[in-house]
Write a structure and sequence with these properties.
Layout (H helix, E strand, L loop, with lengths): L5 H8 L2 H6 L8 H8 L4 E5 L7 H12 L4 E8 L2 H11 L9 E6 L12 E3 L5 E5 L4 E3 L5 E6 L3 H14 L5 E6 L15 E2 L3
Parallel strand pairs: 1-2, 2-3, 3-5, 4-6, 5-7, 7-8
Antiparallel strand pairs: 8-9
């Protein structure tokens, strides 16, 4: 039983944006939170969870089954199963709602020979990737951050390809700790501003 007056309860229940932003914070109540979010775009934040836990499956299934409604996706991929599912999901449709994407790999898998999947998200504005790469069909992409233990030469080729397809890219941040030539910059780790 709740101890909130009817007026406050009604007000809180009508705040769809609130419920849409916390869907994955309480996996056991996710269905109720989704119902309260109604048809509003979702902000999904999937923190690192225990490997193959019930909560992990619940949260990932919520995100992957509703990817077309997601405005912001921040996700820590803890194993190759979820990495493969995320690749399959992101490369299988067009996602005009998606504005922000942060993906982090928390296991050693950077297979350089792996084909890089394409993400069709025409309104994507900001991307942060750690130890994972995607091609973007996102002409409005403005900010890109790539970090992790990757081969610098492969990342340079990847960046050059991305620059061809992202005419509005303004901020590019690279932090690589991988094999290959050392990437240096006179910017000292600060974002590089690209002129339009």
């Amino acid at each position: 039983a709740t101890h909130v007056c009817t007026r406050w309860r009604g007000l809180l229940l009508s705040m769809s944006a609130l419920w849409a932003s916390i869907v994955c914070t309480l996996p056991n109540a996710a269905e109720e939170l989704l119902r309260r979010a109604r048809d509003i775009q979702l902000d999904i934040d999937i923190p690192p969870l225990l490997k193959d836990s019930v909560q992990e499956r619940t949260v990932f299934n919520i995100a992957l089954n509703r990817i077309h409604k997601i405005r912001s996706l921040r996700c820590s991929l803890a194993n190759s199963f979820w990495h493969d599912r995320m690749d399959e999901c992101l490369s299988s449709g067009t996602y005009p709602q998606l504005n922000n994407l942060d993906l982090y790999i928390n296991f050693r898998r950077m297979d350089q020979s792996r084909e890089i999947p394409s993400v069709d998200a025409p309104n994507l504005r900001t991307v942060a990737l750690q130890d994972v790469r995607y091609r973007f069909i996102s002409p409005r992409l403005q900010s890109l951050q790539i970090t992790g233990s990757q081969d610098a030469r492969a990342v340079v080729e990847y960046i050059l390809q991305l620059l061809d397809t992202t005419p509005e890219l303004e901020v590019l941040r690279l932090q690589l700790n991988g094999k290959g030539p050392v990437v240096t910059s006179e910017h000292g780790g600060k974002p590089v501003s690209l002129q339009r």
